[in-house]
Write a structure and sequence with these properties.
With 518 residues, the chain is mainly alpha-helical. It contains 20 helices and 2 strands.
């Protein structure tokens, strides 16, 4: 009781006798309730820098004189101090009390209670499960963290920054791999076969600006005309299928491609890729080598023959359910009819082509599904996507023999590990279902989402932990891997089990040595 009484007497004497300005300053220090934080130390001797003379005068006006960014947020209703009503209207001292020592924490932010919706960057989609430290540097103010996608996702930017920082123009927060880019807005709608084409198939090296929309810019290698027909490929071809020719031969040339002529390749008749070889409508221009009459009957072959069947000038083979087209049309009757032509013949391919079947009967009797009448060994048109193993990603560029050691195609293995055993860094411990993590587009790219697939989100220090650190044997022992902290960190438990297995009550996943919630 003596010391306060002594102090009161001293104050009475000082006020009674009067004090100078210097002594008044010393007096303020004498009555100061405690030392200010380190950040305010340089103005500790100037009380007026933070305190107005009257307690009724708002003190926050003095705070924002130094903390201009906070003041701008409150004025512009931006950021946490502008959007959170309590922070925007109350005195700063309501939340941030000083005079508690140099090392005092006057921010007193609790990350688990902080509502990010009260900032200029609400957390949506995949951002919801992130830890504060995933975006905010530990020693920097949170407000200095930029909202630009590229500041965090530079490693995910396959464009190398060429498209700028506005990643949200194409990507969404639910998953980085999902895109919402509207190609129509840029004057080139992706229709037909183009709708299924990957971006990099047209935009080589992920270069998007200045990409030509002309057909020849991508299809020059498909141009059998060698550029002689110009670059307006759309006048004959369509974007549903490059092989789908839309050229009206009759309207443009006066020669209808009907019956046996229908389905022929342009080069079957035209010797020059520009088609300027002066063909007339006479049959003999193309069929002189097939004229068994050796010209004795003149050049008007159509007076006896039709485009349906060149080899028989009176018999209509089509009426018997087997059109003679392409190579069949070149055959002599005796090539198929070994005996009398009155004897019925089966129309199936294998009835004549048994010795040409190199598949050992695996492909059944529907030879026409892959082979063409124009050439048995060539012009194969098998669509692998209609099989039980569609070719996607890098598989689409492989040669058949890369997987098929012989023409007995059903012998080819279908399990990933059958071909990629040498690429299996897990040495078989994760089983054979490689596609659950790996993509056919790129073996080294994995898509396993531990958070969604296991119910055990990898946060903090767990993010950089190797799979084998927890999965000692294989993924098949997933159910045996403990999900409690004590299951892995028993050796680090200085309490020797006295506080149970719920280590997260005090510790966090960023570092085991930090203690919180005490």
């Amino acid at each position: 009781m003596r010391k306060p009484l002594h102090l009161m007497l001293t104050l009475i004497v000082l006020f009674g006798c009067g004090v100078s300005a210097v002594h008044a300053q010393d007096f303020k220090k004498l009555v100061m309730p405690g030392r200010v934080i380190a950040g305010h130390a340089e103005v500790e001797g100037d009380c007026a820098a933070c305190h107005a003379p009257s307690a009724l005068t708002p003190q926050s006006a003095l705070c924002v004189d130094c903390h201009t960014e906070v003041g701008a947020d409150r004025t512009g209703e931006e950021g946490f101090h502008g959007k959170f009503s309590a922070a925007a209207s109350n005195e700063c001292a309501v939340c941030h009390t000083d005079h508690e020592g140099r090392d005092a924490d006057i921010v007193q932010a609790v990350s688990s209670l902080f509502d990010h919706a009260m900032t200029d960057f609400p957390l949506l989609g995949m951002h919801l499960g992130l830890d504060c430290g995933d975006c905010h540097a530990p020693d920097a103010k949170h407000r200095v963290t930029t909202a630009e996608c590229g500041s965090c996702h530079v490693a995910n930017d396959i464009h190398g920054g060429a498209l700028g920082q506005d990643c949200q123009n194409c990507h969404v927060e639910q998953a980085w791999s999902e895109t919402t880019f509207n190609h129509i807005a840029y004057g080139y709608e992706l229709t037909g076969a183009h709708a299924a084409v990957a971006c990099v198939d047209c935009h080589r090296g992920n270069v998007f600006a200045g990409t030509s929309t002309g057909c020849s810019s991508c299809h020059a290698v498909d141009d059998v005309h060698g550029g002689s027909k110009g670059t307006d490929c759309g006048s004959c071809h369509n974007n549903s299928s490059w092989q789908g020719i839309g050229f009206d031969h009759f309207a443009e040339t006066g020669f209808a491609l009907a019956d046996g002529h229908e389905g022929l390749d342009c080069m079957d008749c035209h010797s020059r890729p520009d088609y300027r070889d002066g063909l007339a409508g006479s049959c003999s221009n193309c069929h002189s080598g097939e004229d068994n009459h050796q010209g004795r009957n003149g050049l008007n072959c159509e007076s006896c023959h039709t485009a349906t069947d060149w080899t028989d000038w009176i018999f209509t083979h089509a009426g018997f359910g087997f059109d003679l087209n392409h190579r069949h049309a070149e055959l002599n009757c005796s090539a198929c009819h070994k005996g009398s032509t009155s004897e019925p013949l089966p129309a199936s391919c294998e009835s004549c082509h048994t010795f040409d079947d190199s598949h050992g009967g695996q492909m059944r009797d529907d030879c026409g599904a892959c082979h063409q009448e124009s050439s048995w060994p060539a012009a194969i048109s098998f669509d692998h996507d209609l099989s039980g193993f569609p070719l996607t990603g890098t598989h689409a560029a492989l040669a058949c023999e890369s997987c098929h050691a012989s023409n007995r195609f059903h012998d080819a293995p279908q399990e990933c590990v059958d071909c990629h055993q040498e690429d299996d860094a897990h040495a078989g411990t994760l089983g054979n279902n490689c596609s659950s993590c790996h993509s056919a587009n790129e073996w080294s790219v994995t898509a396993f989402d531990h958070d969604e697939s296991t119910g055990f989100a990898l946060l903090g220090a767990h993010l950089g932990t190797a799979c084998s650190a927890c999965h000692k044997e294989s993924a098949s022992t997933l159910g045996e891997v403990p999900a409690t902290c004590g299951g892995c960190h028993r050796n680090e438990d200085v309490h020797d089990g006295q506080f149970g297995m719920r280590c997260e009550s005090c510790h966090n996943s960023s570092t085991f040595s930090e203690i919180e919630n005490l």
